[in-house]
Structures are given as C-alpha cells and as structure tokens.
TrEMBL record:
The species this protein was found in: Pseudobacter ginsenosidimutans
HAMAP family, sorted: AroQ (MF_00169)
Residue numbers binding substrate: 71, 77, 84, 98-99, 108
Enzyme Commission code: 4.2.1.10
PROSITE patterns: DEHYDROQUINASE_II
Function: Catalyzes a trans-dehydration via an enolate intermediate.
Known pathway: Metabolic intermediate biosynthesis; chorismate biosynthesis; chorismate from D-erythrose 4-phosphate and phosphoenolpyruvate: step 3/7
Record's protein name: 3-dehydroquinate dehydratase
Coiled coil regions in record: none
Length: 140
C-alpha cells in the first residue's frame, strides 16, 4: 500500500517553531516512528514551502497512490490551487492539522481544503497523521 505524506510551509521547522503550539518533535523523528511502526506501508514523504510544488506533488501522486495525508499548513487558509488539485485527483486525501485551528485566529478557521478532502483531523498533535493513516489503510 502506497501512502504519501505531504507537508506544507514551515513544517520543516517542527520541533523548533512555536513549541507551545506544535510540540518538541521534528517531523523527521515522527516519520521515523511511523515507518518503524507500520513497516508494511510504502511511505513517501514530501515537504515544500512553495505552493506550486505542493500542487505538482498532489498531481504526481494523486492518481497512483492509495492515500494522501496532507497538512497544507498556512496554504490551507489561502490556496484555491491546492483545493482544486485535491478535487482533481482520485486518491483520497485526509487533511491534518497539528493544532486546533478553530481555537486560534479567525483566519485559521477558513480552509480551502476541508470540503475537497475525505475528512479532516484537527488539533490532536502529530498523532493526527497516524489516525489519518489508520483511516486510509482501513476504510472499512
Ligand atoms: C497548521 C495550522 C496552520 O494554521 C498553520 O499555518 C501551520 C500549521 C497545523 O498543523 O496546526 O503552519 O496546519
């Protein structure tokens, strides 16, 4: 089973950025834990700070992979292009946010992704990526 994890801008700074909101762990360390726990999954990880590169990656994996776990980060709130790309592809996308975006600034309550995603996991920390994986690998 092929699962892509796509992270948007500034998520390369997890473990260093606003630790009170996003925690102490880097995504590399969390990803190593996921790969170890779910050895049978063929994971592919992509992170970019550039909107168009995230669209390109969605198009690249979006007809071939079994599932996509995406945290579009700040582009969630601004990017019609990422929402359109998710609508265009056939692979299901689960939107993940580490923090509870509904308990923060008003602008974070808007998502261009949620309506196009299979579902959203919000505010449960890095655990949200694992919960998204469990859904994508066992949709019942
Ligand atoms: C985030 C929430 C976004 O509002 C923010 O811009 C991020 C991370 C989260 O995972 O909580 O960069 O997507």
């Amino acid at each position: 089973m092929k699962i892509a994890i796509i992270n948007g801008p500034n998520l390369n700074l997890l473990g260093k950025r606003e630790k009170g909101i996003y925690g102490n762990m880097s995504f590399e360390d969390y990803f190593a834990f996921l790969k170890e726990k779910y050895r049978h999954i063929d994971f592919h990880y992509f992170q970019s700070n550039i909107e168009g590169e995230l669209v390109n990656e969605l198009q690249r994996v979006g007809y071939e992979y079994d599932g996509i776990i995406m945290n579009p980060a700040a582009y969630t709130h601004t990017s019609v292009a990422i929402g359109d790309a998710i609508a265009a592809i056939t692979t299901p996308v689960v939107e993940v946010h580490i923090s509870n975006v509904h308990a923060r600034e008003e602008f974070r309550k808007i998502s261009h992704v949620s309506a196009k995603a299979a579902g959203s996991i919000i505010g449960l920390g890095l655990k949200g990526y694992e919960l998204a994986l469990l859904y994508l690998t066992d949709k019942g």
